[in-house]
Amino acid sequence: MASPTASAAAIVSSLSPSPVAAERPIPHGNLLFRGSRAGSAPLRLNSARQRRLSPAPRAAKAVAAEKADPLNVMIAGAPASGKGTQCELIKAKYGLVHISAGDLLRAEIATGTENGKRAKEFMEKGQLVPDEIVVNMVKERLLQADAQEKGWLLDGYPRSYSQSMALENLGIRPDIFILLDVPDELLVERVVGRRLDPVTGKIYHLKYSPPENEEIASRLTQRFDDTEEKVKLRLQTHYQNIESLVSIYEDLIIKVKGDAMVEDVFGEIDKLLTSSLEKKSEMVASS
Fold it and tell me: Which of 51, 93, 141, 194 is catalytic?
């Protein structure tokens, strides 16, 4: 299996600058997340088809190209939804600064920053790192020059209502929130079939990307939490997290079907991001 970065480069290079995904119907309407209280009203989210944005006039795009703010994106998806691969593709084409709260936390601890030291104290006690510390890390990263100049891609964060409200209070809000939507049965199959080669670090899948030979197959290992029981618990947590974000980002969340081929999923995302950029340029030009 090629690395996500290599795959991203191959797919992006094969796509033209214009939207490339084949037109395929995307279901829309009511979505009831798992983990919702019994009898609760279904949540209405916008599908990619419902939220297609009108392209800006050519003249407006030419005038606004140098003035429009960079694109800011949030992306979320369940375990094994393909979010990591799509983040690599987005980063490769749009040049956004990819920010993962988990990676950011580990980096700050490793470099011994003030936020990292505070987070480490809680982790060494077996406690969760308070939202205040993580939000502060994310805020400081988003305010760095590269993220301000190129735009940012915030990966898997925020995960709760309190985290999203903390970002809102800081004036941090995306232009678009992409939610990868993959059926549970496929997510379970993807996770349960994953295997790791402890020698090379390469990830295989028993069905979709099997090992090249018996020697490799004999040494593959499975993560302790890549079991059907554990992944179903993680999915329940994911749906509860997303449900808590809807009231904040309802007008920005767009579902994208994540059970298609990688390039088709990216094609749909690509069209959405391109339209969002054009809309920003159009707004600048008309102001």
Answer: 194
Q: Could you give the domains of the chain?
A: 4-10+69-267 (3.40.50.300)
Mean pLDDT of 269-275: 96
Cα 146 from chain centre: 19
Whether 159 is catalytic is yes
**Which one from 61, 232, 234, 279 is the annotated catalytic residue?**
234
* Phi and psi at residue 45, to the nearest 5°: -120, 160
Cis amide bond preceding 210, omega within 30: no
Q: Which of 45-49, 160-164, 241-245, 279-283 has the lowest mean pLDDT?
A: 45-49
Our answer to whether residue 58 is catalytic in this structure is no
Residue, of 2 and 201, whose pLDDT is higher: 201
3-state secondary structure the chain: CCCHHHHHHHHHHHCCCCCCCCCCCCCCEEECCCCCCCCCCCEEEEECCCCCCCCCCHHHHHHHCCCCCCCEEEEEECCCCCHHHHHHHHHHHHCCEEEEHHHHHHHHHHHCCHHHHHHHHHHHCCCCCCHHHHHHHHHHHHCCHHHHHHCEEEECCCCCHHHHHHHHHCCCCCCEEEEEECCHHHHHHHHHCEEECCCCCCEEECCCECCCCHHHHHHCECCCCCCHHHHHHHHHHHHHHHHHHHHHHCCCEEEEECCCCHHHHHHHHHHHHHHHHHHHHHHHHHC
pLDDT score at 267 = 97
Q: Which of 53, 40, 97 is nearest to 73 (CA)?
A: 97
CB atoms within 10 A of CB 164: 24
In the annotation, is 24 catalytic? no
Q: What are phi and psi of 171, to 5 degrees?
A: 80, 20
